[in-house]
Amino acid sequence: NYNNVQTNRGLHETVWWYDMCRFREANRGLYIADQDLGKGSLGYVGSERTRQNNGGTRRGYECPEERDHYPYWQPTHQGPYIDSYQTTPWIDVAYLTGNSTDCDRVKEGSENQNGKWRCVLNESSARKYGRSINEEDCKQEDGTWVQFHSYLEVISSANTEAKCNKYKNTDKRNKISWMSIRSDKDQKMCVVQAPLPKCEQAPWSRVNHLGNSIDTKGNASRVDTELPYFPSGTAKRCVMRLRYNITTDEFDNYGTDH
Question: pTM value?
Answer without folding.
Answer: 0.86
